[in-house]
Amino acid sequence: MKRTFTQTMAWLHTWCGLLIGWLLFVIFVGGTLACFDKELNHWMRPAAHGAASTQVNYDQAAAQLHRIMPNAHAWYINPPNEREPTTSIGWFNEGETFQRRALSPVDGQLLPDTAGGNFFFELHYNLHAGTIGLYIVGIAGMMMLVALVTGIIIHKRIFKDFFTFRPQASRQRSWLDAHNVTAVLGLPFHLLIAYTGLMIFVVYYMQAGVHVAYQGDSTRFFNEVSQGFEREEQHQPLPKLASLDRMVAAAQQHWQQSDILWVGIHHPNDTSATVEVRARRPQHVAWSETSLYYDGVTGQLLKEKPELDTAYHVYTFMGGLHMAQFGGAMVRWLYLLMGAAGCVMIASGLTVWLEKRSKRTVQSTGFKLVRALNIGVVGGMLVAVAAYFWGNRLLPAGLANRNGLEMQVFFVSWLVAATWGLIRARQGQPWSELLGLAAILLLGLPVLNGLTTTHSHLLVTIPQGIWSLALVDLTMLLTGMLLALLAWRLRTARQHTAAPLAQPVHA
After folding, report:
1. Residue numbers in the chain where pLDDT is lower than 70
2. By the number of CB atoms within 10 A of the CB, which of 82, 109, 357, 387 ranks highest?
3. What are the residue ranges of helices labelled H in 281-401?
4. What angle is formed at CA 93 by the lines to CA 89 and CA 98, rounded to 5 degrees?
5. pTM of the prediction?
6. How many CB atoms lie within 10 A of CB 502?
7. Sign of the alpha-carbon torsion through 416, 419, 425, 429
8. What angle do CA 389, 394, 397 make, to 5 degrees?
9. 4 contact partners, CB below 8 Å, separation of at least 6
10. Which residues contact 46 (CB under 8 A, 6 or more apart)?
11. pLDDT tens digits, residue range 313-361?
């Protein structure tokens, strides 16, 4: 029998959503938490809490970089700001992952290492799998666009569905309502995020032009289109880097503003060293591209970045819409709420697929596989996120590779929770147990925070108005309460479903 157009779109929507649903859930959770990555970075560095911030000493930070990684391709220094009130230093070599450490606001020494909120940022865009992960996320983004467009086509009552939510209806109906409400609520946001996410890495996904015009050298391509400036390495050691503090002061005087986004030093130990001082423009949607370039040997101004070409400005505007570094905390909270709605949309859509097939007498292998993945990915990841923050507070500060151990806590907890869920699935849906465990861990975090720190817990941060820290604890409490309520409702609903019907008594 031939399918109608709407039936074909419904089939495409179902299978696009099903095949990448679990991957999209991971990407959405990572992206949602990354909306406040800098606040999480600060929360996860308790050694920096309660200390008065001092004026940034860029030369001192450069000395730390020289001690840690003297032969790096580039160094970066990020001054403190209202979201992350600690100076941080970073470095990278060609073909290696960018590394980052924070400095104490008291003495400028290295703070205990942590993966921080950057862990969720990297999970969001490449799954901590490098270039391969980047391509996997790109494929998921393309399929998400297909699922969104087909979802619009098949929803004839799209505006009515937005106002229809019946939590007391049948399980299938209530999950479908939850899927429809969150999908319609966040539809513009989801389209925006999927499309701009692909645009950011368009050079990786569509490489033909770069291969032809630049022989595959994407670095040279970006330097040209962004009007960047970097000199070729001379392979001659640099006796001493010129004062970064003087260059920053000159840049601030040139712009007549004090806000610096970061200072980058390319080829820091070579006579070709160049120093880029970039201005901070939080009011602009597009990425900040206002920079001055100085000679690392003499400290003299070499170049001021010119106005961007229209095409590249559009690119940075698209990236800015995705990154949400504009508009202050209100925009980031909006993105977080819409991201959370996206997580609910994905999880409820996967549950609807199961509910439609749960009453069949013979459950297929595909059904069991989807159920297992739902439990393992969705339930397990919620536990892992909470365990990750517990690991940050419980791991000793002096451990080597501490950030790697925090990441191990996340993935091991995810594996253990997923395994437990699969074992318990044979005796019924273990959702209430996993959600309940995640709720307990999240509700216990502010208590653990008070037991392990002196300047970070709610009894200090709320009276002193340190909201960058207090809101992290309060958000964990709220999320924990919501998960506890959901776990209780699911457990109650399952008990009612499993309860035998009353039988008539015969004399």
Report:
1. 1-2, 52-54, 95, 157-173, 359-363, 427-429, 493-507
2. 387
3. 310-323, 328-357, 365-373, 380-394
4. 45
5. 0.90
6. 6
7. positive
8. 105
9. none
10. 393, 452, 453, 455, 456
11. 899 999 999 998 888 899 999 999 999 999 999 999 988 888 777 766 5
Cα pseudo-dihedral 30, 31, 33, 35, rounded to 10:
160
Amino acid occupying residue 17: G
**Number of residues that this document lists for the chain:** 507
287-296 per-residue burial string, b: 16 or more CB within 10 A, e: under 16 = bbbbbbbbbb
For residue 440, give the amino acid letter: I
Beta strands in 206-297 (DSSP E): 260-266, 274-279, 291-295
pLDDT, tens digit, 9 for 90 and up, residues 374-405: 999 999 999 999 999 999 999 998 898 899 99
**Which strands make up the sheet holding 99-102, listed edge to edge?**
99-102, 88-92, 74-78, 260-266, 274-279, 291-295, 301-304
Structure tokens, 31: 């992206």
Q: How far apart are CA 102 and CA 96, in angstroms?
A: 19
Output the DSSP codes for 389-412.
HHHHHHS-TT-TTHHHHHHHHHHH
What is the DSSP track for 253-270? HHHT---EEEEEEESTTB
Q: Which of 104, 123, 124, 122 is nearest to 113 (CA)?
A: 104
Closest CA to 204 of 263, 128, 137: 137
CA 442, distance to chain mean position in Å, is 19
CA distance 6 to 69: 59
Q: What does the angle CA 452 – CA 457 – CA 458 come to, to the nearest 5 degrees?
A: 155
For residue 100, give the 3-state DSSP assignment.
strand
H or E segment and range at residue 117:
none
Exposure string for 17-49, b = 16+ CB within 10 A, e = fewer: bbebbbbbbbbbbbbbbbbbbbbbbbbbbbbbb
Q: How far apart are CA 51 and CA 465, in angstroms?
A: 15
Q: C-alpha distances in angstroms, 320 versus 198, 310, 316, 456, 468?
A: 13, 15, 6, 31, 22
